[in-house]
Design brief:
The chain is built from six helices and twelve strands. It is α/β, with parallel strands linked by helices.
Length: 229
């Protein structure tokens, strides 16, 4: 288990505290529609941190060619119909580039700055010169609107219990997912980023904001910085 990360509940738990069975149960949200509207039809997508395929599968159904990457073999066993690669994202070095690189699930908010840098370098390394990187950020009140809960129409409740400072700008976040037959918890470290800090992190990796895709600026389309002739 990674330092500062923990998970409880039935089934396998990944090093960052994610429960495989939980992520296999989570319903598809609006993310595939946001992605599909921002990229060319049939694009080749490198999905970093695919988990059990919650977004992989609907993207495949929409005609995208998806390569799913996750450090958990147990998560990737749940993925169907896509090429899968088991590896830590920050260590990934494929001899190819993609139309789209996808970094969702708030991964850009990794508590460890070096991990975040590695994630963004992987994005920049694998995106085609004319391609794009789609990134999901935390909402602006993610760490302040607490505690909060949401009852999903499918019948489970997700609660963000707390986000406590633990030093160096990092928060320890505690989440709970309650289903009728099981409950999972996850504790993880996250680093809040202002819009300016986020854009600075992109620039450090050789990326720039092309446009924010949603009004809350949670979803972002970034592009490689083109070198001047």
């Amino acid at each position: 288990m990674r330092a500062g990360h923990e998970g409880t509940g039935p089934g396998a738990i990944t090093p960052d505290g994610c429960a495989v069975e939980l992520y296999a149960r989570l319903p598809v949200g609006e993310e595939p529609e946001i992605i599909a509207a921002a990229v060319p039809p049939g694009a080749r997508i490198l999905e970093l941190g695919s988990g059990a395929g919650r977004m992989t599968h609907p993207l495949r159904e929409r005609g995208f060619r998806v390569t799913a990457v996750d450090e958990s073999a147990a998560m990737l066993e749940r993925v169907r119909g896509a090429r899968t690669i088991c590896a830590p994202i920050e260590d990934l070095r494929l001899d190819e580039t993609f139309d789209v690189v996808l970094l969702a699930s708030f991964l850009v908010h990794a508590g460890d700055v070096e991990v975040r840098r590695g994630l963004l370098r992987t994005c920049a390394r694998h995106v085609a010169a004319d391609g794009c990187v789609l990134i999901q950020r935390e909402g602006e009140d993610y760490h302040t609107d607490l505690p909060r809960e949401r009852v999903d129409p499918s019948g489970f409740t997700v609660r963000i219990r707390s986000a406590e400072p633990v030093g160096d700008g990092v928060h320890e976040v505690r989440a709970e997912y309650e289903f009728p037959d099981a409950t999972w918890t996850q504790t993880f470290l996250a680093r809040p980023l202002t819009r300016e800090q986020f854009e600075e992190a992109l620039a450090e990796a050789g990326l720039r904001v092309d446009r924010y895709l949603t009004e809350d600026r949670v979803w972002v389309r970034a592009a490689p910085v083109q070198e001047s002739a």
